[in-house]
Amino acid sequence: MLHDVRFSYDDGGTWALDGVDLTIGAGERVSVVGANGSGKSTLGRIIAGLAAPDSGTVTLLEQQVFHDGAADANAYRAARHGIGAVFQNPEDQIVTTVTEDDVAFGPENLGVPREHIGDRIATALHRVGMTGFGTSDPTRMSGGQQQRVAIAGMLAMQPRMLVLDEPTAMLDESGRAEIMHVLDELHRRGVTIVHITHAEDEAALADRIIRMDRGHIVSDGASDAVPLNPPYGGQLPSQRGATTQSSSTLHTVSAPSPIITLSHVSFSYAKNTPILADVSLTINPGETVAIMGHNGCGKSTLTRLLCALETPDRGDITVAGIPVARDTGRRSKPLRRRDRKRLRAGIGYVMQHPERQLFAETVAEDVAYGPRNLGLDGSELDERVSQTLKSLGLSHLAERSPFSLSGGQQRMVAIAGILACRPKILVMDEPTSSLDATATQHIHDLIADLKTQGVTVIIVTHDRSEADLADRVITLGDHSVGANHDREDSDDHRPVESKQPRPSFITALDPRMKMVLFLIMMFTAFAIGTPVQLALAAAMVAVILAASRLGPISVLHSVRVLLALFVIMSALNVFFVRTGTPLVRIGSIPITDDGLWTALVYAGRLALVVVLGAIMLGTTTPVRLTDAFGSLLSPLSRLGVHTSEIALTMSLALRFIPTLTQETQDVIDAQSARGGSIESGTPMQRLRALTAIIVPVFAGALRHADNLGLALDARSYEGGSHRTHYRMMHIGGRDIAFAGMVIVYLAALIALAFIS
Amino acid sequence: MSVSSHTNTHSTGVADSGRWSTRRIAVYALFVALAMVTSFVELPIFPAAPYLKYDPSGIVCLIAGFAFGPSAAVIVSVLGFVPHMFGDPWGSIMAIAVALALSVPASLIYKRWRTRKGATAGILVGAVVALAIAIVGNLLITPIYAHMTVAQVAAMIVPILLPFNLLKFAIHGVVTFLIYKPISDLLNRTR
């Protein structure tokens, strides 16, 4: 299958891979292990045909793709059609918001005829145990499910080999178990599997383990070690509510007064899906506590509550003597601004992937951000920064750009930025996730150091051995089932209701036709000038609303903010129009009947526009919208505009909006936990706060873009006209009927303009 | 630093067979998404006219233009406002015009002079063009939304429209200037 692979790979003077020879036979299951930076991901990309080496010879699936320092694009293309690649971050591999369409993307790129794509989707989803999820939105699934959809996307291309680069690094135990089961199954079916991982227990499941170190293969042999423990799928003890267990031998009961107290705290993001229910716990000063539990059991939520980033529905929370939340009987009251500031000074919050908050030009400046917000400056600030860096052994990095550091170093710098505020309590959410062994050890040493300094440390973790660092483990149980968890377990065997309601008249319209006609109606609505025309338009919109079978209440609810704005704006017209018969006078200003009518027409037509927009969006999925958009643009391709690429760009952009929104919110939370705020302070402070938010958001966008680019390559996206389309659009009788209706309406609107 | 120059030594040649490379599509998509997200942010920055809201999407258009050239500025400026079509049709057309007027001249100038001075000149020229478009746009569009004559809107130019837009473009410019260095570090690292 893969013969005599030998290459080196230049990265600005250092060699990521240096003279590597490797042959992988068809049907083998190989693991590649090694520390971060050992070259295993690079090796994976070369094997997957996603990158070419600098020198050597690469033969993939009998195609000699690289020889004598030259890449053969055609051979690469042919080889890549038979190779699937799955990456670490499940989210960045999803290209659209409907699972079926996502899985169809690869076959479409390969030019598989439309009538075969449906079968391929069904088979691929079945292989990964996701049958019944075809119409679900993959961006809202758990990580394990997303990763399975990503694998299905590859299987639909019927690859002979699958290369997976740390596919479980971002997943919890049950997610890991799901993926490993899928790999077992694929291997049984004869697919060659190359699995890059730094989890030894996962590697041990392969026939053969290749160990990498600094660009060399240091060992290559059959897997001999039988994993000691069940390698995956170990269930955590789960009990109702929060239970605590002591992992240290003795824990004194007569503790000093607690630094953190939660009593009967409940929290939910949405009605009827409680995340935390009636949780009570206390943590003493200087304690190191680990919080464990399944994904979605509310671990992260608990930390957000402590840092006053969320307010509980019920219950009291006290942190370092500050009442973070008080139960008033109906709802818990949030914190006052002054208390919030005091709390931020006392508690440090290290979010998941804190390196995503880095923003400054140098490490020192980034670390200075928090203390500066606390009011430090001048030599005091410099002193604080250099001390913090020194205590973490980072002094030599002070003048480097944080973006030029390795992942482990970035993590440490981000934590330094929080420790520089000298918090009494440090909350860390998954502090070692996706770090290698060395970097993890650094973090663990730090946790031990903080303990000797008397800092109270709270660690959220999935990792048993990490939890052993703590004095005490708090396990959040299944009682407080979260949304993620709910989806993860219960959906496995529950097919989505196959009996979908018949689509309404408006829903079933061809999206191109619908888009054009709706936009015409929306733009022309601004020409409405008389109450009679308004009445006609309102009647038209009412008919469309009825034909869309969307609930009128829910449509109005979705645009309520805009509606309120229009009412206020046009109410102003009442005061400015002086013509017509005066009705009443307020002070010296006459209110005339013309004024009232004007206000009504202006508010009315704007309201109709937004209601039409809401109906359009409510009856058309984003996928259909972008299909229509691409199709409507396609005539422009004759002018040299790259319309299909633009349409894909648009569809990917829409798919990433929720992700970026969430990340932006996370960055805002994290920076405000470091005392930054755009809403208060001098203009310069506000600008700095804005910069501290915008740079990490851009960094996140570029990171997603890199991963997404690879994912598009892995799905063999090559643009051009040989792509097939799984979904077809065609204009039918109802579209023509609807167009006729709109034409009659527009004619009537124009006629009314002349009559009056 | 344009995206097309990404055909580096480790290219397999496949990604470039399409008319746009996959990386280019991915980068554009993420910038468009960023412009969409930020265009929904509304910050009242001008106390005299609290209904005029500041949104940072112009910064995204500027950065896209600086980092990836004028064509990226066009794509991000146009596609970024498409979601607003279904809420505020005329307003979105005006927002696209203003974003184009700001980012396209700025990126054209920066393409020629890749220095801090070039970036400053680009932002200034872009801001002047965008200011003109914003005011003309307001003269044309405000009467559609509120019962006002063009003359009444014109009367608002000096006390409201001019200072608001000046402030808006000043924030765009200053923030872009402040964040461009760290962001270009990032871009250089990812290549």
From TrEMBL, chain A:
This protein's UniProt keywords: ATP-binding, Cell membrane, Membrane, Nucleotide-binding, Translocase, Transmembrane, Transmembrane helix, Transport
Domain ABC transporter: 2-239, 260-503
InterPro entries: AAA+_ATPase, ABC/ECF_trnsptr_transmembrane, ABC_transporter-like_ATP-bd, ABC_transporter-like_CS, ABC_transpr_CbiO/EcfA_su, ECF_ABC_transporter_ATP-bd, P-loop_NTPase
Comp. bias intervals (Basic and acidic residues): 484-500
Locations listed in the record: Cell membrane; Membrane
Region annotated Disordered, chain positions: 221-250, 480-502
Transmembrane segments: 515-547, 559-576, 596-617, 736-755
GO cellular component, one term: ATP-binding cassette (ABC) transporter complex
Membrane topology (UniProt): Multi-pass membrane protein
Composition bias type Polar residues, residue spans: 236-250
Pfam name, any one: CbiQ
GO function terms (MF aspect): ATP binding; ATP hydrolysis activity; ATPase-coupled transmembrane transporter activity
Assigned protein family: Belongs to the ABC transporter superfamily.
PANTHER family: HEAVY METAL TRANSPORTER
Protein name: Cobalt ABC transporter
Species this protein is from: Bifidobacterium vansinderenii
Lineage of the organism: Bacteria, Bacillati, Actinomycetota, Actinomycetes, Bifidobacteriales
UniProtKB/TrEMBL annotation, chain B:
Keywords: Cell membrane, Membrane, Transmembrane, Transmembrane helix, Transport
Record membrane topology: Multi-pass membrane protein
Transmembrane segments: 25-46, 58-83, 89-110, 122-141, 153-180
Superkingdom to which the source organism belongs: Bacteria
Location relative to the cell: Cell membrane
Cellular component aspect of the GO annotation: plasma membrane
Gene3D superfamilies registered for this protein in UniProt: 1.10.1760.20
InterPro entries: ECF_trnsprt_substrate-spec, RibU
MF GO annotations: riboflavin transmembrane transporter activity
Pfam family membership, one: ECF_trnsprt
Biological function: Probably a riboflavin-binding protein that interacts with the energy-coupling factor (ECF) ABC-transporter complex.
Family label: Belongs to the prokaryotic riboflavin transporter (P-RFT) (TC 2.A.87) family.
Protein name: Riboflavin transporter
Species annotation: Bifidobacterium vansinderenii
